[in-house]
Amino acid sequence: MMASFTSQVKQVIKQIPRGKIATYGQIAKLAGNSRAARQVAWILHSSSRKDVLPWHRVINSKGKISLPPNRGGELQKNLLEKEGIIFNRDNSINLKKYLWNF
DNA sequence: AACCTGACTTCGG
DNA sequence: TCCGAAGCCAGGT
C-alpha cells in the first residue's frame, strides 16, 4: 500500500466537495500531520500536473488565495466563483460558510 | 548523492 | 496580542 503522506494528501484533496474549500492545515491534519501544511502546497505543485486534483479548492488559513496572481491566482479565483463561491471585497473567502467540514 | 526551496501552520516568548 | 522560529516531505539542481 502507498501510505505515504503524499498519497494521503491526494486522497483528501480528491474528497473536497464542489463549492467548498479547505485550508492547507486542514488537509495536512487529515493526512496525518497537522504541521505538514507546507508539503501540501508542494504536493499540489507536483501532483496536479500528473493527476487531476481540485487544487483550486485549497487556500490558506486566512481564507485567501496563496498563489501570486500571475502564477494562477486569478485562475483559481475564477474557478471558485464558477463553483458558486463568493469572494469578499478584499478577495478573501468566508471560511465559516465555505470551509469543508467533513 | 547532498543541499535547497516551496501555493503554510503552529507554538513559544 | 504580536513577532520570530521551528516543523514537515518531495522534487529539482
Could you explain how this protein is built, in words?
The protein is mostly helical. It has 5 helices and 2 strands; from the N terminus they run H-E-H-H-E-H-H. It has helices spanning 5-14, 24-31, 37-50, 73-82, 95-98; strands at residues 22-23, 58-59. The chain has a two-stranded parallel ribbon. Helix 1 (5-14) packs across helix 2. The chain is globular, with a radius of gyration of 13 Å. 27% of the residues are buried. The mean pLDDT is 92. The protein binds a DNA duplex (13 and 13 nucleotides) through residues 4-6, 9, 23-25, 28, 33-46, 55, 58-61, 65-68, 71-73, 76.
Can you write the helix and strand succession as a string? HEHHEHH
- Percent range of helical residues: 40-55%
Low-confidence stretches: none
Mean pLDDT: 92
* Major beta-sheet overview: 2 strands, parallel
The structural class is mainly alpha
Q: What's the end-to-end separation, in Å? A: 24 Å
| Beta-strand proportion | under 5%
Q: How many individual β-strands? A: 2
Q: Count of DSSP helices?
A: 5
Query: What coarse outline follows from CA principal-axis ratios?
Result: globular
